[in-house]
Design a protein that fits this description.
Layout: H1 2-11, H2 15-27, H3 36-52, H4 55-69, H5 74-99
Helix pairs in contact: 1-2, 2-3, 3-4, 3-5, 4-5
Length: 100
């Protein structure tokens, strides 16, 4: 539901509001148990953080997600971190080529 709402906000050029919506979901105490859908929320959250250059939000989201899934599904945390690193590296290469 939050992921759908974030997609709607992004389509309306309100990426920052979408970021805060997803961050609220990850930080909400209601979602302290790991669910498969949280992985998709994290992917979108981190993509928005990279796009909007919000490093602190990305770090806070990763810390919350680590707390959520460290007891249940460490593989999911690994997958999310790898996705984040790949996204950051591709954006960095893109920025480097555009500056040359």
């Amino acid at each position: 539901n939050a992921l759908r709402r974030a997609e709607e906000l992004i389509s309306q050029d309100q990426s920052l509001r979408a970021l805060y919506t997803l961050a609220d979901v990850v930080g909400n105490k209601r979602y302290r148990t790991w669910q498969g859908s949280m992985e998709d929320v994290m992917f979108k959250l981190l993509d928005l953080c990279v796009e909007l250059r919000k490093g602190k939000q990305a770090r806070d989201g990763l810390m919350q997600y680590r707390t959520i899934c460290q007891q249940v599904n460490v593989g999911s945390l690994e997958k999310v971190i790898h996705h984040f690193l790949e996204t950051v590296e591709s954006k960095a290469k893109e920025a480097q080529t555009s500056s040359e």
